[in-house]
Amino acid sequence: MTKFSDLDLDPRVLKAVAEAGYEIPTPIQAQAIPEALKGRDVLGIAQTGTGKTAGFVLPMVTMLGQGRARARMPRSLVLCPTRELAAQVAENFDTYAKYTKLTKALLIGGVSFKDQDKIIDRGVDVLIATPGRLLDHFERGKLMLTGVQIMVVDEADRMLDMGFIPDIERIFKLTPFTRQTLFFSATMAKEIERITNEFLTNPARIEVARRATAAETIAQNVVMLEPSRRDRSFAEKRALLRALIDHEGEGLTNGIIFCNRKVDVDAVAKSLKKHGYDAAPIHGDLEQSVRTRTLDAFRAGELKLLIASDVAARGLDVPSVSHVFNFDVPSHSEDYVHRIGRTGRAGREGRALTICTPADAKNLAAVEDLIAREIPRLDIGFSPAQVAADDEAPRQRPQGGRQGSTRRPAPERPAREKPAASPAPETTPESGPEAAQPAASEPAAPQRGTRSGSSGRSSRDQGRGEGSRDQSRGEARVIGMGDHVPDFLMRSFPGSSAG
Ligand code: AMP
Predict the structure, then answer these.
(1) Average pLDDT of the residues in 121-127
(2) What's domain 218-396's architecture?
(3) Whose CA, among 31, 104, 184, 233, lies 20 to 30 Å from 121?
(4) For residues 27 and 55, what is the distance between their CA atoms, to the nearest angstrom?
């Protein structure tokens, strides 16, 4: 078996790798590193979790070990589709280049141009960037790409999904054609094939097994949900999600909940928080500082549930996620593999639970086609009609037991007591533009859990707000659309923005 020490890596890199605790290269590393060190272009067909980041970082650090950077002319360039992924690649550089004098800069949105300019002016060996931000700097005349010797394109298929391919082509053309290119993509869509044919020269094509076949440690289930009414679908899915979280009990140490739509990411996060779960959203519309804070908290184990869009979660390296929930079946079947790949990493056991409504049936069939097996159905005895009744009939939620593990330690402040648009202190991660939106048809939190009945509500709150009820008459009196916001009002439109 190949060891890192068998590869022709700089001793300083080997030392850093050993300190990181790695001895045996993963298959993509074992194959890509020798080719890259020969100066060849590499086309790596591999997804996140395979160790592909070190697969390009280690040879780059080795090859850049000699020579010095010139002002405004980076010697190498790594393009990533999202800020988080770029930040993760930067962390890898910090780890593996720590015994060298190489310098790096991270060009991502949400960081001031001035600070970034200063670093570039000094000259950097490695520039890690998202394509848009890189071009912004280039257009401001602050950056020259003619000194780029090595260019990496990471997660090219995601770049394609996000509409970055024209930017990538442009960046390719701004770099010298003699550069070495290391290009990674989980899949080879036609458009990706086209640009690799155009911009890579006789690449070493390295394909590693899909995680779908490798991830035997992930126990997967689908929970079918037939909503009692079409306009209750979203509310019932949220209730089912809570039931699933509770059902998983102590085994759920932390989890990522994926939604197909950004607007749902916020609504689901808000809903979970309202019900006392320790949850926060992450998606492309949130401020970078908020995203970073949320992710750091999740990584540190201070946040249990991360609600995410595919784009925001793509490539995130969170080593020990016990659970992945798919609030929706992804519309791109490959995303299913990426999503569940967040759990069961590096041989750990993982659990993936997917909610499927009749509207998702087609997507589920595509997923099962892709992974070439049927995902076992799980029946947790969830009844949408019962939930609808529960949500409308306020009662004390049982405390303690298995539910406790995912709940916040302190009781939530009832949402009804705060003005709709002013975020409470603990809701900082939601302070993005979507945060002020009401969570659609959310049943009122104070009616369950720590508060019972209406005694805890101020008179101002009586009889108004979302779906308020006249309990004295024992019947629901709904104002406005209440619990019945039609699904289409909650839908985001394709291409409105990424994330
Ligand atoms: P990546 O696919 O680059 O996102 O890497 C996924 C995870 O694998 C990261 O947590 C890496 O730290 C880890 N990793 C990278 N190389 C190795 C290796 N040779 N052995 C074990 N784990 C590794």
Answers:
(1) 95
(2) 3-Layer(aba) Sandwich (3.40)
(3) 184
(4) 9
Nearest CA to ligand 1 atom 6: 49
pLDDT band of residue 438 (cuts 50, 70, 90) is very low
Same fold, 4-207 and 218-396: yes
Pocket test for ligand 1, best of 6, 19, 22 (most atoms within 8 A of CB): 22
495: how many CB neighbours lie within 10 A of its CB? 7
Query: What are the pLDDT digits (tens) for 303-325?
Result: 999 999 887 766 666 666 889 99
- Look up the CATH number of domain 4-207: 3.40.50.300
Q: What is the pTM of this model?
A: 0.56
Nearest CA to ligand 1 atom 16: 51
Q: Do 256 and 271 meet the contact criterion of CB atoms below 8 Å apart?
A: no
Question: Residues 139-162: pLDDT tens digits?
Answer: 999 899 999 999 999 999 989 888
Q: Can you read off the two tokens belonging to residue 71?
A: 């002002």
Are 126 and 79 within 8 A, CB to CB?
Answer: no
DSSP character for 145?
-
Query: What residues does each domain of the chain span?
Result: 4-207, 218-396, 438-444+452-499
Q: At what angle do helices 131-139 and 113-122 cross, to 10 degrees?
A: 70
